[in-house]
Amino acid sequence: MILVLDNQATNDEIKNLQQRLKFMGFEAIISNENAQKTISLVKGVDKNTDIKGFINLPLVKEILPLKTKFGLANKDAKAQQTVIRIKDKKIGGGHFTVMAGPCAIESRQQILAIAKAVSSNGASILRGGAFKPRTSPYDFQGLGEVGLHYMREAADRYNLLCISEVMNAKDIDLLEKYVDILQIGARNMQNYNLLKAAGQAKKPVFLKRGLSATYNEFLLAAEYILSCGNPNVILCERGIRTFETHSRNTLDIAAVPILRELTHLPIIVDPSHGTGIRNAVAPMANAAMAVCADGIMVEVHTDPDKSVSDAQQAISPTMFADMMRSLRGIAKAVDMTID
Ligand code: PEP
Ligand code: MN
Questions:
Q1: Are 207 and 225 in contact (CB under 8 A)?
Q2: Nearest protein CA to atom 4 of ligand 1, as residue
């Protein structure tokens, strides 16, 4: 259930209401402190609850039943789309964010070279895995903490933010020391303990859609993070598994406009894992911009064929520069800024 509160309510008044609801046995979550309407969702409501009684509480102007189970991720929970601010950068709300970098951090020299190449062509966030979820246990599993250290150095040198995957709740503190955004990978989208722990993290969370997750399951995974107190969740469409075997995954580009109708959270497209095919990355990045996604995440390597992981989908700095040129053209048509 959502309680729509008086727009003029002060933070103290809202805190008092939250306390009062707590005494009554409910949990109230403030879902949009900065938007026009301040709305709180109450957990603990069941069929025996006298919903009408809530209208007599101070500040409550309206009571909305939950149309979906993802009450906090739901578009109705906020008056505006979520814009996530990290240092001087914004994700969401008309800003097209380009996240680029290698699949895996391989060495200090590799991440420095790639950071230089992508930053000089307009990327604002450096990606790279230090803890890699590999299908085979015999494949390279990532450099771990030392990799994160190299990535932070590269990001700082080229004025980039950085993002890396966390596979385990106990590693969140470690990741937060180095990165600006925590990535939760497709394979862990339904790792509920990890989602709950990410909900208590201080840094924004980039949540990738599971390999066979429906939109409902995807948004409920985001809801786990939001309901544990972290309002900064970014969704990533990264392709799903279908009957097609030629490409690695089928990039569900329609997820962007469809999720847009359902949620206020920013939506990023990953055309690299979404296709697994180098020459398909730029066209699908263009498609992401054309459907007004909030950005892309792409895998770039200075020597793509020698990438330790995901070599077939890695693009070179030259291909990245060409892709950015065409994105700038489309940005004018859809009235977005790349930053
Ligand atoms: C990645 O981005 O490095 C990755 C492993 O992606 P996904 O979880 O989408 O497979
Ligand atoms: Mn990869």
A1: yes
A2: 185
pTM above 0.70, yes or no: yes
The backbone region for 15, taken as left when phi is positive above 0, alpha when psi lies in -120 to 50, beta otherwise, is alpha
Question: What token pair was written down for 151?
Answer: 């990535």
CA of residue 150 to ligand 2 center, whole Å? 18
Structure tokens at 117: 């190449």
| 36, pLDDT greater than 60 | no
pLDDT bucket at 37, cuts 50 / 70 / 90 = low
Judge whether 173 and 195 are in contact, CB under 8 Å.
no
Tell me if 251 CB under 6 Å of ligand 1: no
Q: Residue 281: name the closest of 298, 261, 268 by CA.
A: 298
CA distance 211 to 221: 13
Which segment of 62-71, 91-100, 152-161, 270-279 scores lowest on mean pLDDT? 62-71
Between CA 265 and CA 106 the distance in angstroms is 32
Encoded amino acid at 156, one letter: D
